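Morning run. Coffee first, then this:
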Amino acid sequence: MQSGSVKVSPFDLMSAIIKGSMDQSNVSSESGGAAALVLENREFIMIVTTSIAVLIGCVVVLIWRRSGQKSTKAPEPPKPLIVKDTEVEVDDGKQKVTIFFGTQTGTAEGFAKALAEEAKARYEKAVFKVVDLDDYAGDDDEYEEKLKKETLAFFFLATYGDGEPTDNAARFYKWFTEGKERGEWLQNLKYGVFGLGNRQYEHFNKVAKVVDDILLEQGGKRLVPVGLGDDDQCIEDDFTAWRESLWPELDQLLRDEDDATTVSTPYTAAVLEYRVVFHDPEDASLQDKSWGSANGHTVHDAQHPCRANVAVRRELHTSASDRSCTHLEFDISGTGLMYETGDHVGVYCENLIETVEEAERLLGFSPDAYFSIHTEKEDGTPLSGSSLQPPFPPCTVRTALTLYADVLSSPKKSALVALAAYASDPSEADRLKYLASPAGKDEYAQWVIASQRSLLEIMVEFPSARPPLGVFFAAVAPRLQPRYYSISSSPKMAPSRIHVTCALVCDKLPTGRIYKGICSTWMKNAVPLEESKDCSWAPIFVRQSNFKLPSDTSVPIIMIGPGTGLAPFRGFLQERFALKEAGAELGSSILFFGCRNRRMDYIYEDELNGFVDCGALSELVLAFSREGPTKEYVQHKMIEKASDIWKTISQGGYIYVCGDAKGMARDVHRTLHTILQEQGSLDSSKAESMVKNLQMTGRYLRDVW
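And here it is:
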């Protein structure tokens, strides 16, 4: 072809593109060949020239980056977590073992990883994989498809609140518990379950027990009895006992005949440690003090919280009260954060400055030292297997201790082992090792747990124990966790605000230490926007709840919430008020509220009376425990209103309870059982069956802590 014989230089190409707006009649005969070719093949030429431009840009960036290396080295940021594509299963002849976890605070994940690390050392011919239940499958069909292929699996499942699964296990738990019609489809699966709970709560380790039972019912072979970890005592000991019972079973499955009699070298877990890189203090200006860039995500959750200013703060108790309760409003306008009535808000808080300064003194760290932590070696290979938590952003020591280190909780035994490894005084090291050992179990339970000794107090007792930064943040101090609060507003009345009702925690502990609640103290001292433009703010996110009003507004409801247990019901009543204003028909409603004294801690009194006056609330029943000669609580008022409660339940009504799980909620549950038994002329077992039926059908809901 003739066009193929025309030679066009890069300069001609670029010139033709620049002059591309001209039409063919303006092309001279001398340059017509090149230009005509360009005009006829403009789409191809645009691709070529765009590629050239990109290459030039890359060269410029490379030169700029190399020139920048002559200045002070910038902080080495932690490598981002990479979501991997679906892995292709390779049949290498090794037994695959999957270890699942459902965790709220990281303990279940830690146990899962600890089991995997020791199992890897024991069984070289098996492959162990630790999996977040939420990441295991994208939908229900994938859960079934993948679980059907598992042959050996272990589940670490925490239970929180009123027998609920953790956030990352909720989707799996809902799918698994609702699919009981599958039959015995897991006959190839051998499994074990370890639960994490607290015996003080009514539904102790419910999630683990339920999953264990269903796995067995659907054909799975249980290797060991379900482990019932009790956080009220020493959950590490419970895990250790369960793990030791597991090894003989795994020996049968994962060891060949030729090595079955081999005596394994006793396994000692390595002390976890991040790789630490220190940086020039001048680079501290690059770091964001506390989640300042938190609003860069379209979806807000515990890993991606939203920065929210404090718009309003006020004291709810009167000056006559010796206690304190804060009403606080977060401004969420423009953040994209949304909530529904009955949801919870998670708030990331900061350690008090006096706590941080004491930690700095005990550790011997310079508060202004600027550093970053990493989970991989300099060559990119992982450190300590996969047991390290994702690193926090580069910051100063003071910022790290303020935002990320929980130094006021009692230390776990693994933390004592880590401290012992860095105690320069041999007697202190021996004492720490003893407390963490099986022989020191009783003393640990009494001296650390029962006495509620904090990590800081332990470090005061053992001053020679000064671990390096990488060990302190990896193995000694747990991550500071968000605090959860029942939202006390409705988006129908406050769409751009999240209201919180928070009682100040200030307790004297057995050691004599005064414990100040981290988040409640922060809220009490928060500076609202209405007082200063330089207001307080916090990283927050919303956790969905099933604590919702009936979809049918005409259904009657009973609400029981003393003290700050009133919080979600304030949101309910705001919602009912908005619905009534919109013309909805409301069913009857009764609120049982209790406090000590109406002149001291009767919170939101005017609002509650206003809800009664406007018809959003049918009846307000009050119990004041410190006004009369005898203490009167909400459960006593329930007995007085027994016939009304029975009538509401008989009409298909809903019952809601919010507050302390260990005391009030348990007493209310017993009282409800008694009312059903007496009003319905039922025996005890039938009354209990009726209560369980109310729970199963979602008509008896509890928001407890």
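Residues 1-49, 58-86 have pLDDT under 50 and may be disordered. Good start to the day.
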